[in-house]
Specification:
- There is one protein chain.
- About 40% of the residues lie in helices and about 20% in strands.
- With about 220 residues, it is α/β, with parallel strands linked by helices.
- It folds into 2 domains: about 120 residues, Response regulator (Rossmann fold, 3-Layer(aba) Sandwich), CATH 3.40.50.2300; about 90 residues, Winged helix-like DNA-binding domain superfamily/Winged helix DNA-binding domain (Arc Repressor Mutant, subunit A, Orthogonal Bundle), CATH 1.10.10.10.
- Helix 1 crosses helix 5 and helix 6 packs across helix 8.
Length: about 220
Amino acid sequence: MIYCVEDDSGICDLMIYALNAAGFEAKGFSDGVAFYRAFSENDPELVILDIMLPGEDGISILKKLRAEGSTVPIIMATAKGTEYDKVIGLDLGADDYLAKPFGMMELVSRVKALLRRTRPTEDRQLLIIGGIQMDTAQHIVLSDGNRIELTFKEYELLRRFMEAPGKVFTRDRLRSSVWGDEFASETRTVDVHVGTLRTKLGRCGDYIKTVRGVGYRLEAEK
């Protein structure tokens, strides 16, 4: 459930409609009194909180929630576009910020992104391709049942391969996603790390296939 605290009924109705259409449950509240009443009965997954409200303003509500220990994700929404309001909200514990007027597609996108960041992940996620096993929670990799030690870059390369078996990754794509701007003009570094990764994986290193003139893909033995 998503709580929208917004005193403009037209905007509030539109927000609720957009969130419902995106598959969320949402309720609207025009002031802090109604919001607190509902909040005390049920914890929402996320709160969209307007700063300018009748009675107690959004900043005060945010401050009170965080002082009480609430960790509910909060997006601040306000017509004020000043840097000061944004900084104050974020400093007090807001997770994101939307300046009015904002589009409903942007609202839904921000909500989805924030929930992805804040929802608890599974304690254990195991990726298995042939004889390779990767525990992404504990950063453990097994090759034919034997634990192998990988550098951070080698691990990130292997994780990308294992999350999309059969997909061809260009060298530029791998370099960009694993190294970012560290080696903006260096393509050879990808080949070097793939080579060491293959060696450490032993027999399973043959799963990493070279796609001539393009890059690499992971393909387990059939």
